[in-house]
């Protein structure tokens, strides 16, 4: 009997399970040869943290769903590296979760256990270097953040609505529109700035962002969890397990490695989405759509955006955020290095650049977090990481080590934001007004903040209207 490679058999099985090209559909004046046509109550665009949560909740509520995901796994920014030599997992993206009833119920639903975790350096000693030169920041002494955090919390408490979304009062309070650097100086929060900067990685230069965005990312529940030590992670310290379990529940309703080719939301009974999958084009007839991906125009080719959607989405700017592992850094296995600007405002690191290099418990590997005020090419980021790591090496001690980027993930586009003037002029009021229009509901980081636990809560508030 003739044998076939396993990948051929797998592709054949996938084609047979989802159909083959037998029909043509016309969408927006174009003809598409489709391998399958499906009907779903809800189509979820994006299988990241928010899209996965929405799909599980809607399926549990009895709705048929389809999830369109551009890569080969669920979870978005939740990426876990398993060291092949030791089997030790390292959470390179989402590391911790809030201790709330919603989080506990969601993990229990997917049969993934949780344990408490601190946010300390994991036992490694921390040194402070200016990564521009590689030199130790000898004049820098870490401040006690407690007084600044207490004062920050007192100001934050004035605006409880920032914890749940962008439903702002108008006129928008002036302090929310201040650049965060000016806000810090206005309320003498300097002692807390390095701590906040380290926690709010990915937001770019937070000194220049409107305070609103920092309040949302470093909010009241974060302060509560810092005070109580109440952060959670999976018991096996592999946060990817949540999404493996979700994938098992959703099964063939997830279309991996797939992209939207075109969309028409003008139909009377359903919207039509043509999706390119590894086994051919699929026509999806969707009664409703949940949109969870970054709403950047260059991310939305093929989408039938309305005038209002286009007008709003084109105003978004985004930061760049990258994470992964460096091998052979030359940094001792008991040491983590934090990037400090020796002569910058608040001693904040100069971006684009590394926030720091941290130990992960695996000899020879350090975790990196890298940020910028805008999107950067992967090649540029990798080159800059290696150059900065090399500058940290000490002549006569470890300068012979040749670092390499062992694992690399791009979380770009990351923080989607607009100017203080746009916020003042009602940008978010107009953005919220899109909810439910043209069969579409919006969630994800741009509609709240980059925090899985908070995004699940935000999405939960949308579920009743999606189900209606």
From TrEMBL:
GO MF term (any one): oxidoreductase activity
InterPro entries: Amino_oxidase, FAD/NAD-bd_sf, Zeta_carotene_desat/Oxidored
SUPFAM superfamilies membership: FAD/NAD(P)-binding domain (SSF51905)
Signal peptide: 1-21
Amine oxidase domain: residues covered: 54-322
Pfam families found in the cross-reference section: Amino_oxidase
Highest taxon of source: Eukaryota
UniProt keywords, alphabetically: Signal
Name of the protein described by the UniProt record: Amine oxidase domain-containing protein
Biological source species: Coleophoma crateriformis
Entries under PANTHER family matching the protein: FMN REDUCTASE LOT6, PUTATIVE (AFU_ORTHOLOGUE AFUA_7G06600)-RELATED, PROTOPORPHYRINOGEN OXIDASE
């Amino acid at each position: 009997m003739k044998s076939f490679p396993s990948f051929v058999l797998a592709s054949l099985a996938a084609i047979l399970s989802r159909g083959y090209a037998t029909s043509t559909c016309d969408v927006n004046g174009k003809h598409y040869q489709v391998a399958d046509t499906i009907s779903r109550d809800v189509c979820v665009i994006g299988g990241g943290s928010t899209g996965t949560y929405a799909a599980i909740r809607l399926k549990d509520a009895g709705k048929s769903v389809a999830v369109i995901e551009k890569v080969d796994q669920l979870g978005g920014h939740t990426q876990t590296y398993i060291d092949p030599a030791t089997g030790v997992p390292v959470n390179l993206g989402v590391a911790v979760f809030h201790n709330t009833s919603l989080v506990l119920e969601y993990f229990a639903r997917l049969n993934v256990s949780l344990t408490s975790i601190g946010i300390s350096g994991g036992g490694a000693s921390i040194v402070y270097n200016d990564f521009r030169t590689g030199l130790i920041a000898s004049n820098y002494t870490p401040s006690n953040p407690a007084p600044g955090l207490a004062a920050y919390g007192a100001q934050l408490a004035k605006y409880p609505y920032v914890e749940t979304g962008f439903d702002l009062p108008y006129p928008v309070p002036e302090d929310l529109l201040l650049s965060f650097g000016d806000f810090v100086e206005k309320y003498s929060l300097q002692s807390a700035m390095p701590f906040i900067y380290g926690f709010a990685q990915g937001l770019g230069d937070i000194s220049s962002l409107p305070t609103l965005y920092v309040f949302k990312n470093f909010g009241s529940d974060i302060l509560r969890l810092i005070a109580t030590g109440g952060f959670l992670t999976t018991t096996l310290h592999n946060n990817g397990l949540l999404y493996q379990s979700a994938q098992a529940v959703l099964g063939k309703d997830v279309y991996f490695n797939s992209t939207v080719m075109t969309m028409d939301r003008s139909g009377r009974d359903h919207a039509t989405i043509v999706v390119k999958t590894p086994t051919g084009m699929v026509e999806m007839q969707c009664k409703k759509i949940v949109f969870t991906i970054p709403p950047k125009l260059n991310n939305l080719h093929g989408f039938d955006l309305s005038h209002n959607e286009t007008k709003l989405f084109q105003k978004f700017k985004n930061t760049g955020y990258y994470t992964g592992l460096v091998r052979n850094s030359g940094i001792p296995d008991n040491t983590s290095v934090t990037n400090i600007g020796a002569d910058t405002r608040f001693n904040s690191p100069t971006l684009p650049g590394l926030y720091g290099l941290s130990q992960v418990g695996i000899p020879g590997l350090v975790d990196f977090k890298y940020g910028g005020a805008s999107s950067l090419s992967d090649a540029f980021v990798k080159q800059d990481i290696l150059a900065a790591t090399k500058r940290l090496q000490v002549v006569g001690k470890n300068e012979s080590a040749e670092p390499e980027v062992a694992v690399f993930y791009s979380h770009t586009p990351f923080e989607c934001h607009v100017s203080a003037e746009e916020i003042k002029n009602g940008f978010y009021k107009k953005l919220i007004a899109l909810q439910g229009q043209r069969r579409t509901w919006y969630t994800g980081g741009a509609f709240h903040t980059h925090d899985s636990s908070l995004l699940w809560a935000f999405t939960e508030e949308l579920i009743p209207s999606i189900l209606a």
